[in-house]
Specification:
This is Phage tail protein. It comes from Microvirga arabica. The structure is a single chain. The relative contact order is 0.09. The two termini are 54 Å apart. By secondary structure, the chain is of the alpha/beta class. The chain has five domains: 46 residues; 120 residues, no CATH class; 156 residues, no CATH class; 224 residues, no CATH class; 69 residues, no CATH class. Strand 9 and strand 10 form a beta hairpin. The chain has 13 helices and 42 strands. Helices cover 19% and strands 24% of the residues.
Length: 726
């Protein structure tokens, strides 16, 4: 029985309740206090019973239950793998099917949190078949008519045989051998756009649209589907991969042995109601365009236009999933909105992921105003309607807002301009957003995509105390052109002229940040990109400095930040787990990373270019690798002469450098470290994770978890290797 004040009070004799009413109910109030504590005890007793079962136990109990069956704990580095309850619950079932491909695949997903596919490479080794075990699909030479196989060449879904490769798969040197098992992992996530509210497509003209809100090429990704059976191995639709034109064509038409129609395009109907959307769907004037009205097409550039644009009335709407383009026939007009998925490594920079945990809570003095609404159709009208004490302006769609914005608040006021949870609106500013405030005032921006303009905090009567940006993207280079290059290379995204301001940037992507000497800046889990036309030249641009771009900027703190460009700060209060990819431009005399005051602050577990002028460093690369290599040479017993020391330094400095899959903003693998990057970078953070903005992914810990489980579940004589598909 649930103990409550009412139930306990009802158990009392009537005479006591009558006397209690005459006295003003002091006994009932006492029973209320007792009932609260009784409820705590009762809840604890119920939890003790629940803790006996892995399905209902608390997270801290799961390792103890696992210990009863010999479960080995893993690194709980990220939220999706921090609780071992699911793995402990399935441990017995896993062991019963020890070493099978389906179990290894399920384990890889459980312990890494990444989609996975296991390939048994003995099935793909070119061999002479036995007559009593004929495999008709096991061809020695590839079928050149098999377009699906040719598209999958070199991937986890490659169906073609190879001659034997005796190199070790564990070191990722070879694959095709009889004892080899490959575990293929997808590090990129499929992030939705327009999942709840379709996002407007970017309009080029009456008949041409783009999926990207920035008007740049954008490859579309599949939304992974769960396997229907535990023995089923992952297929192309079960992992977040890019959608090719042929795959989309087969999905729309069901031809060429493709997947069932509408596995990629269209809504998912469940129980007669509209459920979660598929990977891709198109709307014209808020009406869904059916699969029979859409075709997959190559819409590449052609002399200022696109090839294969529908020419006649009644033609189907053409979609190019590789470039993220839409072409309408002449008789289809209207506003086009889209739902789609794109690839990225982590939940930073804003998007339709959960952010509500960091939201301010409205109250009587800080009301919540929603945009768009009848009362506030524009963002500026809502900002102007806030009371003197401030408040919250929340954008509740994925719309495109082209309006000049200015925030000017009074003393003590606090204003938050944010996107609603699971929304990602686009603010295309014709001029810079200016922020002003009175004494002890603060402004926060959350979950916004900002292009064309930047954010400026001017001086001159401005007393704003704090500016905070969370989960925002301020497009490096202001805007992207049709080729995906920055339209204003090196242009600043944030300019702080107000002395005494505290700037806090968390989980953002931004262009150069210019901060006055008397202001302070703290960046965390962020990408700071100087955005040159050629990405390899971005380290020569200015990423952080004073507003004139030449003098030292204000004191700077970097926590898990990837920087492309030169950094000049009055002092570095703390730089930790960060990558400072910087170098002097031709003709520069000053080093690429420099502090005016070296006596204060610390740089730790970070990559800092050689020759930088910084405060004291602790376990920073590449200097740490150089010192260890020289110490190892000296340990042989002979002194190390200066020429040899210099040779070692040059060799290690060339080896221990960050390698990125892509340095261009807008690419799916933007700032993702290559698997071939030196171990000192990939595991060089203070918790042995990787340095830089994607430290929060904890990729090394995920891979270590996988190795631990492979040792336990891999059959004797087999050898396994892990491969990154993305």
């Amino acid at each position: 029985m649930r103990m409550s004040a009412e139930s306990l009070y009802a158990l009392l004799p009537s005479i006591y309740r009558i006397r209690d009413a005459e006295e003003g109910f002091p006994l009932r109030e006492l029973l209320g206090v007792i009932a609260e504590q009784a409820a705590v005890v009762e809840e604890n007793i119920e939890q003790l019973y629940d803790d006996q079962f892995i399905e209902t136990c608390a997270d801290w109990v799961a390792p103890y239950i696992g210990g009863l069956i010999g479960y080995r704990p893993l690194h709980g580095a990220t939220a999706d793998i921090s609780s071992p309850k699911a793995e402990v619950a399935n441990t017995i079932g896993y062991r019963r099917r020890l070493g099978t491909a389906s179990v290894l695949e399920q384990l890889a997903r459980d312990v890494t949190g990444w989609p996975a596919r296991v390939v048994e490479y003995f099935l793909l080794v070119a061999t002479t078949q036995r007559m009593n075990h004929i495999r008709p699909s096991h061809h020695f030479a590839p079928d050149l008519r098999d377009w699906r196989g040719l598209e999958a060449l070199g991937t986890a879904f490659d169906p073609f045989s190879r001659t034997v490769d005796v190199r070790s798969i564990e070191r990722a040197d070879g694959r095709y051998n009889l004892p080899n098992v490959g575990v293929h992992l997808w590090r990129l996530q499929a992030q939705p756009r327009g999942r709840r509210i379709p996002a407007p497509a970017t309009r080029l003209d009456d008949r041409r649209r783009l999926f990207s809100p920035l008007g740049a090429p954008l490859p579309l990704f599949t939304s992974p589907k769960s396997e229907t059976r535990i023995t089923q191995l992952a297929g192309p639709l079960n992992v977040p991969g890019s959608i090719s034109r042929r795959v989309l064509h087969a999905d729309l038409t069901g031809v060429d042995g493709g997947a069932p129609p509408r596995a990629i395009y269209g809504p998912q109907i469940s129980g007669g109601a509209l459920g979660d959307l598929q990977s891709l769907v198109l709307f014209i004037d808020d009406v869904e365009v059916g699969a029979d009205e859409v075709e997959s097409c190559n819409l590449s550039d052609d002399a200022g236009g696109w090839v294969n644009v529908p020419a006649a009335n009644g033609d189907r709407v053409a979609i190019d999933p590789v470039l993220g383009r839409i072409a309408l026939p002449p008789d289809r007009t209207g506003d086009v909105s889209v739902t789609y998925h794109l690839g990225f490594s982590a939940e930073i920079g804003g998007g339709e992921y959960a952010r509500a945990g960091g939201f301010s809570v409205p109250d009587a003095t800080h009301p919540l105003l929603r945009v768009p609404s009848v009362a506030h159709p524009t963002i500026q009208s809502a900002l102007d309607a806030l009371p003197a004490t401030g408040g919250i302006v929340e954008i509740v769609d994925n719309g495109r807002y082209e309006e000049a914005l200015a925030i000017d608040i009074g003393p003590g006021a606090a204003v938050e301009l944010r996107a609603a949870d699971e929304c990602f609106p686009h603010l295309r500013l014709p001029v810079d957003l200016t922020v002003r405030g009175g004494d002890d005032s603060s402004v926060a921006l959350d979950g916004l995509l900002i292009s064309r303009g930047g954010i400026v905090v001017p001086d001159g009567g401005n007393a704003l105390r704090r500016l905070t940006l969370r989960h925002c993207t301020l497009v490096p280079g202001r805007e992207l052109n049709a080729a995906g290059d920055p339209s204003q290379p090196g242009e600043s995204s944030i300019v702080i002229n107000r002395p005494g301001l505290d700037l806090a940037v968390a989980s953002c992507i931004t262009g150069p940040v210019l901060v006055a000497r008397d202001a302070m800046a703290k960046l965390e889990d962020t990408i700071l990109d100087a955005a040159a036309v050629e990405p390899l030249d971005s380290p020569e641009g200015v990423a952080y400095a004073a507003p004139d771009g030449m003098d030292f900027g204000g004191p700077l703190t970097l926590l898990q930040v990837s920087v492309f460009g030169k950094v000049a700060a009055e002092r570095f209060d703390l730089v930790s787990n960060s990558l400072l990819v910087s170098r002097p431009a031709p003709g520069d005399v000053a080093p690429a990373v420099r502090a005016e005051r070296r006596q204060v602050g610390c740089m730790r577990f970070s990559f800092v270019p050689r020759g930088s002028i910084t405060p004291r460093r602790f376990r920073c690369q590449p200097q740490l690798a150089i010192d260890e290599a020289i110490a190892a040479r000296a340990a042989l017993g002979a002194p190390v002469p200066a020429p040899e020391r210099n040779a070692i330094a040059v060799r290690e400095a060339r080896r221990v450098v960050p390698g990125f899959v892509s340095r261009r903003f807008g690419r799916p693998a933007y700032v993702q470290l290559r698997a071939s990057t030196a171990r000192e970078i990939r595991t060089g953070a203070d918790d042995e994770s990787e340095m830089g903005a994607f430290h929060l992914v904890h990729a090394p810990q995920r891979e270590t978890n996988l190795r631990i489980r492979l040792e336990e579940y891999l059959r004797f004589s087999l050898e396994a290797g892990a491969f990154h598909e993305t």
